[in-house]
Amino acid sequence: MTQRPASRTPLGRRARLALSALVLPLGFGAAGCSGGLTDSPDTTTPTTVEVVMIEGRPLRRRNGRLHRARSRRGHSRLTDRQALRLAPAAREALGSHWRNQGELEHASVVAFHDLARRLALADAPDELLRRSLRAAAQEADHALRCFELAGRYLGESVRPGRLRRPVRLPRSRATELVRLAEEALRDGVLNEGFAAWVATQQLDRARDARVEETLAVIARDEAEHAALSVDVLLWCLAEGGAPVRAAVLAAAESLPERMIACVVPGDLDRAALADHGFFDADPTGAGYAEVLAATLAVVCGDCSDRAA
Questions:
Q1: Rounded Cα–Cα distance for residues 152 and 113 (Å)
Q2: In terms of residue numbers, what domain contains 207?
Q3: Per residue of the chain (308 residues), what is the pLDDT tens digit?
Q4: Separation of alpha carbons 196 and 55, rounded Å
Q5: What is the pTM of this model?
Q6: How many structural domains does the chain have?
Q7: What's the CATH code of the domain at 184?
Q8: Is residue 170 part of a domain?
Q9: Is residue 42 domain-resident?
Q10: What's the CA gap between 25 and 11, in Å, rounded?
C-alpha cells in the first residue's frame, strides 16, 4: 500500500501546529495522542446552542444522522456505598448520564471498525488502519467503563444493545476520499478534540476515584483519536488533491460556531453531580473556541479568525 510521504508543505506545518494546540493543553505529548455533531440533543432543557458534543466518534447512517443502540438494564443488582450517599434524584441523573455516554462510546466501536474498512478500500496506509482498529478497542473499553458507572448509580447492571455497521453503497475512490476527509475534520479533529478537552476538565473537577479513572482514560484516548483524524485528513488531502481540498474548505466554513459539552439539570445539586463527572466544563465556550481554531488551522490557516 502507498505510504504517505513526510509533509514539507505549509499545510503540513499548520497541521502540526494545530495538533499541538489540541494536545498540549491536555498535558499529553504529541507522540501519545465524542464526533460527530448531533442535531437532536438528548435533553428537554431549552437551549439556543447549535450542537451538543458526542462522546467518541459518531456512527452515522447513510443520510448522515446519528446511529446508536439503546442499552438494556440487566438482572444483576449492584450496591455501592458511596453512590448510595447521593440523593435518589442525583443518582438517577448520573445513571442516565453515564448510560448515555456508554451508548455513544459503544456506537464509536462500530464507527471505527467502519472507518478501518473504508480506509482499506481506499488503499490507505496500513498504519492508519491499525490505529483505527486500536481506537475501536479503546472505545469498547470506554463503553464498558461508562456502563459500569451507570449501573453503579442506577443500582442494576447495564448492558449494551445490539448494533450493526450501517450498510454503505459502493462509492468511487474520489468520492470516498472526500467523505473520509469531511468526517475526519468534523467528527474527528473537532468533535473528538473537544471531547478530550472536556474530559480533562471533568477529570480535574471530579472527586470520585472510579469516575476519575474513567475520565483519565477517555481524555487520553480521545486526544489520540483526534490526532488519528488529523493524519487521516492529511492523507485524504494528499491523495485527493484539489477536489478534496475544496470539499474540506467548504466543510470548515460550516462547522458550528458553538458546541456545548452537556446539559445539566438545573434543579439538582450540581456540586454533587460534578464530583461524579457530570457538569458543563465549558459554559463560556472558550474551550471550544480553542479547539475550533486549531481545527480550522489544519486546513485553512488564516480562516481560524472565524473562531475568534
A1: 29
A2: 11-36+49-298
A3: 444 444 333 444 444 444 444 443 433 333 222 333 433 333 333 333 348 788 888 887 766 677 777 777 766 666 676 777 899 999 999 999 999 999 999 999 999 999 999 999 999 999 999 999 999 999 999 999 999 999 999 988 888 888 777 777 788 999 999 999 999 999 999 999 999 999 999 999 999 999 999 999 999 999 999 999 999 999 999 999 999 999 999 999 999 999 988 889 988 999 999 999 999 999 999 999 999 999 999 887 545 445 44
A4: 9
A5: 0.80
A6: 1
A7: 1.20.1260
A8: yes
A9: no
A10: 22
